[in-house]
Amino acid sequence: MDESLLSRLRSLGVQLGNTPFSNNSTPKLERLISIEKVIEGKNYPTIFGDIFISEKQYPPNYNHGIVNFSSSVDLSSLIAWSRIPFESITSIDEFVFLDTETSGLAGGTGTFIFLVGLGYWKNGQYFLNQIFLREPDEEPAFLTALEEFLTPFKILVTYNGKSFDAPLLNNRYILNGFRSPVRNLHHIDLLSLTRRIWRNRLDDRSLGNLEHEILNLGRAEEEIPGWMVPQIYFEYLQTQNATPLRGVFYHNEIDILSLSALFLHLANLLRNPLGSPNPQSLDLIAIARLYEELGDYTAAVQLYEASLEIGLPTHFFIQTLYRFADLHRRTGKIEAALALWMKASEFNEVDACIEIAKFYEHQIKAYKQAIEWTDLALTYLDQSPLPRYLKNQRRLELEHRQQRLHQKHNRSTNQSKP
Amino acid sequence: MKKILDFWQNDPSLSPNISTIHVTNANPGHFVPLPEKLDKALVDALLQENIKALYRHQWEAIQNITQSKHTIITTGTASGKSLCYLLPILDKCLKDNTATSLLLFPTKALTQDQLNTFLRLSPSTFHSSIAIYDGDTPSSQRAKIRQTARILLSNPDMLHTAILPHHPNWERFFRGLTFVVLDEVHLYRGVFGSHIANLIRRLKRVGQFYSASPIFILTSATVANAKEHAENLIEEPFQQISDSQSPRGTKYFLLYNPPIVHEELGVRRSALSEAVRMSGDLIVKGIQTLLFTHTRKNVEIGMKLLQSQNPDKAHQIFAYRSGYLPTERRKTEEALKTGKAKAVVATNALELGIDIGGMEAVIISGYPGSIAATHQQAGRAGRQKQDSLAVLVASSNPLDQYILKHPEYLFENPPEMALINPNNPLILYQHIRCAVFELPFRQNDTFGKLPWEDIHPYLQVLTLNREVFATADRFIWRANQYPSQNVSLRSTSGDSFLLQVEEDDRLITIGELDQASVDWMAHPNAIYLHQGQTFIVQELDFEKKLVRLSSFNGDYYTQPLMDQTIRTISEEKNQSVPGGAIHFGEIEVTRQLKGFRKISWLTKEILATEELELPPRTMRTVGYWIELDAVSVQKLSEYNLWSGKPNNYGPNWEKQRKLARQRDQYTCQLCGIPEKGTPHHVHHKIPFRQFPSYEQANRLENLITLCPVCHHKAESVVRIRTGLSGLRFLLSQIAPLFVLCDPGDLGSHSDPQSPISQGNPIVMLYDNSPAGIGLSETLFEKHEPILNSALEVVQNCPCGEGCPSCVGVGGENGSAGKVEAIAILKILNGQPLRL
């Protein structure tokens, strides 16, 4: 060790941490506990050498929280949302559920993957494989094994994998001079779906919180928080004691089970939102929007109706009235839309009054009513808590509308006189 | 242009001050036809832009580049440097659809400018392959750029923090990497340049991973060692293209020395006020003028002056400097292009090749600190073939005065060298961290030209610090962070501070300051100027990196006062010279801002001095120091004994003298010898001149009784001290002529009884950045010419007892010490002292 460089850098002001430096980083032999003694697994041969793999099979009828892993599931709605061509998928056995544990959370070329877990169904039964990097130098074997395990599958399912796991895997393959197999797979990132569905109801849409709120599940004592994972791995590398890694394997396992369970749950929820005994109206309006985007207006209408019936917090209630009315307007059911705007106007809604005024002006040319509704809009505007400059701007628009309506009204009464 | 020259030459208050008129005759240029093998689409685009031929030097550069030779182009401003790389890049990319090129520009504005040029000169089918990738690129566009860009325009900071740490995303780009362009590399010097050299090592390392070994194309302003500088930056052999063959109009370059207004003090009229006056003349004649000045403060003062002297044009006069927000700057650039701005007062922030159209005239207030910068600023005048005018208005600064007496330095080969030190341990350490993150190191890997033996210790330190992990055959990154995010290319350490003003209950950010200048410019109660507005610093928050300002209406500005101690760590080189020895080695400098002065805008008098309590800052760096030996000290004190002239100490002197002797019991207070017949001397502890009145100077507390021998010693210490501090002032001003650096890049120190040389007097210049960047070492090598120039400056200076043009005024003891500094310089130049 070059002591002089160390002290030189220190004197130049480099912050060299508070950890006491010791040169005996060689582990004490009696504490050597290899991964094989901690996790049940086997050596999987590749052309770059053996790699450690743990394989687990779950009993038929396994339940993860409220989700049963053997019940039949209709994936069609979830796949429609994912925009993957439906014809290419024949069964749930073509999906692989993936989560990685890494040497750091920053991403970029300096971060590598030391544990990758893969969950999948085969003939109605659930399996989990975990591939582990005993030493960083095993990476070529690790990546080769992973590629071989991914081969039977068509669709990759992750949680936040589009911005984290997938780019990281691509990096590792490129850095080792390989082609990344991830690029051959369709990829469903459930995070973007859970964000949409639960954005109104849950502030925290992390997998851990969904597990708790949606799947109704708690973790065992072995669980270790994600941010501690890199530290535990490097300690293992230094000491060669694999015992603390048990918690990391557990963490990874539960993440994948929860991801798979969430996938089933979401597939059911999307396919049959009103099917649960106790449907959440906030979830229903989020799903309704999703159906609207997919062009399934019938389903959307049904969900909007149901959610209004069940009841919503005022803010969402009004928002839903507008959205639902807009859907009706776009599909040519203007009378139905009018009813909803009328409903909204009961909440002193300026925009609802304007929509109604427009209806009277353009649809049935009843200028007098249009003028009345515009007057009402002006009254509500004065009462609204909008900032002054916005109020002024909107007032100008309304006054302009008012003027135009009066002109039209006068013209029509003049024409009808003679 | 001739008209305004005649006008000035017929103005008796102006013409005697014009010391040189340097005329560069118009040159028709040397044209050669476009190379035959150029891509057809490219030729069409060129013809569309009316480019039917090349200048000879462009053709030569293109020949070099297409023969895969690394090339540096140093032809002047407006010589069509960009075409030299544009053509080979576009040609290659059009013929080979896997080839890619990376262009790095020092500023965002320049990048934008170059994009437009690229788009103009390429067929429209290729436009989607050219992209800017910088901090302003929306994240929605980034993925597409990574996948499709063939020509990428970016900056070093972006390569450092965004591209290299994610290089697998750029796999296609790196596999095709054929050309790398670095523009304006004379800016990549000192700390910044040392970072860039390491960034290039990282780029080449990543390139190698993808089997790419690109050709480097550099452009630079004229410096003495352009080729060597390129080779230090890139660590490859270079070809230099320097002979410009572009056509140009007649260029008049005036050197102007403001008249002396105070003979005794040698004080000249201020450069800025003369420059403003000349700019006013030009504006009146309808000539669009750019006025350059050094400091951000002077931009503000200059704009105020120019506006008040030309009230009817005030709305057409703009200011431009760093610290302004980009939107303000773009507005001013646009006003220049459209002609809406008649005059702009600017710092060197505008010196770079940002296209603002051709200026007709450029006035430079005060030598910009380097010959390279002078040419860059002057080059702003006279794009196209029209006649143009540039004026350098000298300040009282010694270097300005020296340049005015030696115009050949400006118009012939400059002595300045651009220096970098890529192996500065601090900088290298930071980049090895980044490099491990990008790709693991294996045994016997190299880093640029550094062999494994040199980088291995760094990897070991990083391993111990748990940032890197050593596996059986590699060093891999371990820490849970991006190293490059915390490494600033612009400084050895630290980030910038935001300047915030409270306005209508909201905090508005008006600019930023770097860590290095924040103490000096924005200490508590400092007066800070921005866009002509005056602010006072309310709070300097080191933790949040914020400076809180509020507007200020007072009539004074502030000047910081610094305390400094130096200790040597190791001496690496020494050499005896006439009169003593010179040394080079590692030192530790401790500085503390002790307080500040309030100085009246109007009278320049010191209104008050206030104390500050700021923590001391220690810096380890390298320095070059001159030591005077005992014989020289002896010679100087003999010489000084006879050279002084009697002082008039005021009407109460005889009385106070008696009282002092009486108090001290007629005994020398140093050696204890009592008076024998003749009275002992009475000495002013703090020199007489430093007091505003004789009553204060002659207070008994300031007097001490000394025997003639001890008095002589005391006096000569004072005189040597004065001479040394004068010499220190002079050397710190002259040295930048030999190393391309800003005056702030060098620190200085002097001590008549220095502990680092066993009590001998020293004068020291040191690198003002941690671990240094090679300035002091070069000064050590150039000791002789530097001392020659220094002696010449001070001997030729017409002032009486020292002035800002030579040894400064009122050094540390009230007397500037011109005579003493000359004596010291003569000894150091091996010349006899005549009594």
TrEMBL record, chain B:
Gene3D superfamilies: 1.10.30.50, P-loop containing nucleotide triphosphate hydrolases (3.40.50.300). Pfam families: DEAD, Helicase_C, HNH, MZB, WHD_HRQ1. The keyword ATP-binding applies. Keywords: ATP-binding, Nucleotide-binding. It comes from the Bacteria. One of its GO terms (molecular function) is zinc ion binding. One of its GO terms (biological process) is interstrand cross-link repair. Residues 279-426 form the Helicase C-terminal domain. Residues 62-241 form the Helicase ATP-binding domain. PANTHER family: ATP-DEPENDENT HELICASE HRQ1. This is DEAD/DEAH box helicase. It comes from Bellilinea caldifistulae.
